[in-house]
Structures are given as structure tokens and as C-alpha cells.
Amino acid sequence: MTNVLQLSDLDIGFNKGDILCSLSAIDDGSAKEFIYRNGNNIYDIFIQRQGENAFAYTNVCPHAGTPLNMDEGRFMEKTGRYLMCHTHGALFQLEDGFCVAGPCNGASLTGVEILVVDGNITVG
Ligand code: FES
Asked: Fewer Cβ close by (within 10 Å): the C or N end of the chain?
């Protein structure tokens, strides 16, 4: 993963360790989207749950800058192996956001630092 965003570095009031949501608030195999705003700055992130793990990225495709999803909570392609941009079909590895197929092959999503601690997803 080349780019990583620290929520605690942004102007939206987060500190490391702050709870974003409980892991159980996200259905296994689904994602939850969070949109934070401060003035003109808008941060659209999503957290994809896979079992007891969770992975977070900004909801911006490196190809054309569109959001990845079209439906709420649906960021994976149908086999459940890759995150998919629904605009032109780029596929990204869940674990590191690296694009393995599509028009932005070789680029990466911007990761968001999170941790799973005692059943909660926290700012990393
Ligand atoms: S905008 Fe995502 S693949 Fe084109």
C-alpha cells in the first residue's frame, strides 16, 4: 500500500484509539461507509469486514476519482475476493488496496489506518 491516511492527522477531531464502530456493526463480507466533513473538506472512507478483520480505504478510485461502490455497503466483486470499482471494473486486493486488474492496474487505493481492538474498530 503506497498511500495511507491517518484520521488523527485530519481536521475532523479524531484521536488515535477513538472508536469508529463495533466490528459487529458491519456484516461479515460487507462494508460500512463513513463520510466526514469539515468546511470544504470531505472525507469519504469505507471499512470492509472480513471475518474478524477489517480493512479501510478512502472511497476514491485511483483511475478517475469516482466512488468505488454504487450500492450501500457493496464494495466487493461477486466472488468476494477483491474490492471492485463499479465505474470501470478495476479490482483491488482487499489486504493492501493494490489494483490487480483494470484501467488503473498497478495503482493503489489510499488506505486508512484502523485497528480492531476488543471487538471495536478504532482509529489507528
Ligand atoms: S473510475 Fe474506477 S476503474 Fe475507472
From this structure: N
Instruction: State which amino acid sits at residue 8.
Output: S
Show me where the domains of the chain are located.
4-123
Q: Are 112 and 121 in contact (CB under 8 A)?
A: no
Residue 75 CA neighbour count, 13 Å, CB half: 31
Mean of all residue pLDDT scores within the chain: 96
Testing ligand 1's pocket by substitution, the residue of 88, 98, 99, 100 carrying the most ligand atoms inside 8 A of its CB is 88
Return the C-alpha cell found at 98. Answer: 493494490
pLDDT tens profile 11-27: 899 999 999 999 999 99
| In CATH, 4-123 is 2.40.10.270 | no
Give tens-digit pLDDT for 26-39: 999 999 999 999 88
Closest protein CA for atom 4 of ligand 1: 88
What whole-number distance in Å separates Cα of residue 9 and Cα of residue 37? 14
Q: Tell me the C-alpha distance between 50 and 75, whole Å.
A: 12
